[in-house]
Amino acid sequence: MRTKTGRYSGYIRPFSYLIDLIIINIFSAYIIDFPFNPIVFPLALSFAWICIAVHLGFYEVYRYTKVIAILNCALKQYVLFGIATFALAFFYSQKTSIPSIIVFISASFLVILTFKFSIYFFLKKYRILFGGNHRRVVLMGNPKSVAPLQHFFTENLDYGYELIEVFDIENDKSKVNQLMDFVLLNRIDEMYCSMCDLSQSQMSEIICFADNNLITLKFIPDEKQMFFRNFTLEYYDYIPVIALRDIRLNDKSTKVIKRVFDVVFSITIIVGILSWLTPILGILIKLESKGPIFFKQRRNGLNNKEFDCYKFRSMNLNDTAHLNQISKNDIRVTKIGKIIRKTSIDELPQFFNVLKNDMSVVGPRPHMVSYTERYAIQVNKFMVRHFVKPGITGLAQTSGFRGEVESDKDIINRVKYDLFYMENWSILLDIKIIFITIYNVLKGDEKAY
């Protein structure tokens, strides 16, 4: 569902369309020499750009839109527009230079993307420095339910949300009427209500009020209602059916893209690093303790199937390695083991798991079989993580929830981040996670032990 546009969106988007079309046509005129009617090609090129942009939502950038989402959409726009340009060029002329088309597409797109981000970051600074481009908002719900969003609004002024009032209905259900009166008197733009704190009749009343007064209404789900965040609506004839979870990684084309990336990246690491690092570590591991160089551990993967997860051995041989998770200052860890665990080098053999198609470079981290059985009972939606292949690194790990599970909060948040990743996957998100992982390794992670 697309949200109501802000006060400036009605001017910014048409202006963006116009500037982008001017850039495209100027670059095409100076870079590409098409031997045909100079009016037909610019019109066809402009039409192709607009159709693709509308289909992908290239101009649907909101104040809460993430940079990675913009880049992901821009990449798709670049590819599809490139295909359309090649099709137009070779339809009209066989003499068109391929390098000139590539230069045209890349140059014009680079300028357009620069212009797009200039507006995006200018508005962020404008909201902070001048207090403009704001949306006046109110929250309704008990303090615990609305606290995260309340904190977000007050700490992220660059998003341009001005929190006017918080209505606590924990002990007073009559505040729904007070909320509606307050919204009308104070020119409120958006209302955010906690779903778990309202009855069905109250939600219906608030929805009718918002619709009749042109107020943007959004609901805050609790943990049990999180599946509504990314559901898909399908029609069987004229009958609406809701699919509770839209996992992007289940799409066939997405699987191909991710698998190609995994194979290429894994071969690069195996040939470039493991080919010379393995013999060195093998000698060091053998010198300090008896046992194999590699350690195999049964873990749960795609569709909960078990597989052998490979690591460089970092502990002395013991009977509890497959049962007990490692903890801080664990006496089982060897001296060389402490080093390779701190730098995450012990995880590198898992790139062989990626080649075997047991794992992916990025995805939810796999757990030991005993822990999977325990968390499946304790943690809601834990097993949903097994709809996709596990990863060497993941969004949860780069967000501070890696290593030992010290409390229920750790595993609950790990599941939340994993579900978000599954439902919002993009190749750019994978690349971002990889770069953050490398940065964390170089910086040192306090939970790496």
TrEMBL record:
It comes from Flavobacterium shii. GO terms for molecular function: phosphotransferase activity, for other substituted phosphate groups. Belongs to the bacterial sugar transferase family. The chain crosses the membrane at residues 12-32, 38-58, 70-92, 98-123, 260-285. Residues 258-443 form the Bacterial sugar transferase domain. It is found in: Membrane. It is a multi-pass membrane protein. This is Exopolysaccharide biosynthesis polyprenyl glycosylphosphotransferase. GO terms for cellular component: membrane.
